From TrEMBL:
Thylakoid is among the record's keywords: no
Annotated pathway: Cell wall biogenesis; peptidoglycan biosynthesis
Catalytic activity: 2 D-alanine + ATP = D-alanyl-D-alanine + ADP + phosphate + H(+)
HAMAP family: Dala_Dala_lig (MF_00047)
GO process terms (BP): cell wall organization; peptidoglycan biosynthetic process; regulation of cell shape
EC numbers, comma separated: 6.3.2.4
Source domain of life: Bacteria
Protein residues bound to Mg(2+) 1: 262, 275
This protein's GO CC annotations: cytoplasm
Originating organism: Sorangium cellulosum (strain So ce56)
Name of the protein in its database record: D-alanine--D-alanine ligase
Annotated binding of Mg(2+) 2, by residue: 275, 277
Length: 345
């Protein structure tokens, strides 16, 4: 149980304009109800398609102590809303602007994984402006089957398994409906395992067995479409290795707060990180609540624990600058602007 010393006015931010809007609304409603039941003064903030000015105005009126982000997908999970909250000086749940952006961008996340020696399936990228008639040369000896994903979407939206060049073209066309770039990833046969992390503490790993074989959007959010095994059915030594790998993946991106790491565990004693989610779903079929429950957190406990981690991520100045320093800084900025103007003439 999380102890709270003061009654907080909390904004639960949900909705948005991504393809995951419906999931976000369900997550937000569940979180708001749980926090209200525990005595918090909850303000439900439902964002629409064009929510920049809307969010700023709402934050000004609401006078929040903290924002609980129940957003998913583009503009909500990729650092944009996090940036607005940093500027508004409203502490928020989840990761920083940078970590959120890295995790949401599948290409940049994979590059960070490789930099930190975190194994991830081989891949290449295709842009929407590339000529798909040249795809055979681009794909080369990469082989089939492959998994095709939009570069910057979540919840498995637009994800397809392709077993031939023609199927690959169709899969890319679907991915381009969600993004201007796609990731073509080598298919790895294995068991999908998700690991939950809360404030740097690994909670456990759940095994996912989708009835259709592919853990797509329908399998994720339709009750009865997927079987879950908690804890994941792995030997103890390998289970600990999976938890350690998930922790390393989250650290590679600089993620904080509540995190879910998606991995593949193969029969050949290999593990691969697929992605890291900085704002995991909080619906009745979501994985983080299932993992947290096995670790001793009721849903309300989990919501309070996530809320307790809300903070601003920008560095705090250790001391106020002296007046002389401010004058020097202002003069330096003025001289810099003058040089730019002169160079443009």
């Amino acid at each position: 149980m999380v102890e709270r010393q003061v009654r907080k006015r909390v904004g639960v931010v949900m909705g948005g304009s991504s393809g995951e809007r419906d999931v976000s609304l369900r997550s937000g409603a569940a979180v708001a109800e749980a926090l209200e039941a525990r005595g918090y003064d909850v303000v439900r903030i439902t964002l629409g398609d064009r929510f920049g000015a809307e969010l700023c105005a709402t934050l000004q009126r609401a006078r929040l102590d903290a924002a609980f982000l129940a957003l998913h997908g583009r503009l909500g999970e990729d650092g944009c809303v996090q940036g607005v909250l940093e500027l508004a000086q409203v502490p928020y749940t989840g990761s920083s602007v940078l970590a959120s952006a890295l995790a949401m961008d599948k290409l940049k996340a994979k590059e960070m994984f490789r930099l930190h020696n975190v194994p991830t399936p081989p891949y290449y990228t295709v842009g929407a402006n590339q000529d798909l008639e040249e795809l055979d040369a681009v794909h080369g000896s990469f082989g089939f089957p492959v998994i095709v994903k939009p570069r910057g979407e979540g919840s498995s939206l637009g994800v397809t398994k392709a077993g031939s060049l023609e199927e690959l073209k169709s899969a890319l066309a679907l991915a381009f409906e969600f993004d201007d770039a796609a990731i073509v990833e080598r298919f790895v046969a294995g068991t999908e395992v998700n690991v939950g992390i809360l404030d740097g503490k690994v909670l456990g790993a759940i095994e996912i067995v989708p009835k259709k074989g592919l853990y797509d959007y329908e399998a994720k959010y339709t009750p009865g479409m997927t079987e879950y095994h908690m804890p994941a059915r792995l030997p103890p030594t390998r289970y600990r290795g999976v938890l350690n790998l998930a922790e390393r993946a989250a650290q590679a991106l600089g993620c904080t707060g509540a995190v879910r790491v998606d991995l593949l565990v193969t029969g050949g004693e290999n593990e691969y990180v697929l992605e890291v989610n900085t704002l995991p779903g909080m619906t009745q079929t979501s994985l983080l609540p299932k993992i947290a429950e096995a670790a001793g957190y009721e849903f309300g406990d989990l919501c309070e624990a996530i809320l307790a981690s809300a903070r601003l991520h920008q560095p705090v100045r250790r001391r106020a600058p002296a007046a002389s320093e401010l004058r020097l800084s202002e003069r330096g900025q003025a001289e810099k602007r003058l040089r730019l103007v002169k160079s443009a003439i």
